[in-house]
Amino acid sequence: MVDKRQEFLNKVYEDSFEYERKYGFCSQAVLASLQDNFDFIDDIVIKALQSLAGGGALCGDGSCGGLAGGMTAISCKFGRSRDDFGNSKFNSRLSSSLSRKLRERFIEEFGSVICEDVQTKKMGRGFDLWDKEDYRKFEEAGAHTEHCPDVTGKVASWTAEILLDEGVSPE
Length: 171
Prior knowledge:
This protein has one domain. It is an all-alpha fold. The protein has 8 helices and no strands. Helix content is 64%, strand content 0%. The chain is globular and about 50 Å long.
């Protein structure tokens, strides 16, 4: 029998999976799912993360946008605000420490944080998302029906798990 915590984590996974499947932009899919299930992520943060999708600017050679979305959610809750610049009492390492946990789990699952490396692991090769023909092949390989939604779902669920472990209550 699945307990309430696991039911919640499954819901976060499914929400993110569906956002990525329907709308793309992995960074936003992760954050939208977490926003739906927690109450501390503002819409402007989701807007700000759009260009981090697809390895950054859809170029594939940077960090997975889904991972960036998860790390951003952690920072929305535990990160340093501008008011805390120079505040020696603020724990400036907590957000990075929790994001590192997420990053390590991501690498354990996918072997790398680089978008093209994740594409290769999931679909056999990396794709140029700016090339129309290569993008067509990306979609035909199941990018938005299976592979990228699975990545975003896992990242959102792992992020939710970290938040729960830190005492953050769902909305």
